[in-house]
Design a protein that fits this description.
Length: 64
């Protein structure tokens, strides 16, 4: 998994009825775009995370 600042991190819900969580990646803390990432969720909450298999990166530049 590789990302750049400004990309979106989407954490898919793990159980029926649980919504996806979407966050903007504000800082890439790993080497060459790898986790961990500092993120800001749509509700303003900020966190540092290392995304698991239930997550995906939506790149701001679709040509990546």
């Amino acid at each position: 998994m590789r990302a750049t600042e400004g990309d979106q991190l989407v954490q898919h819900g793990r159980v029926v009825g649980q919504h996806d969580k979407v966050a903007e990646i504000t800082q890439v803390m790993g080497k060459e775009g790898t986790p961990p990432y500092r993120v800001r969720f749509t509700d303003g909450h900020e966190a540092v995370c290392s995304p698991g298999p239930d997550s995906e990166i939506k790149h701001k530049d679709p040509m990546r």
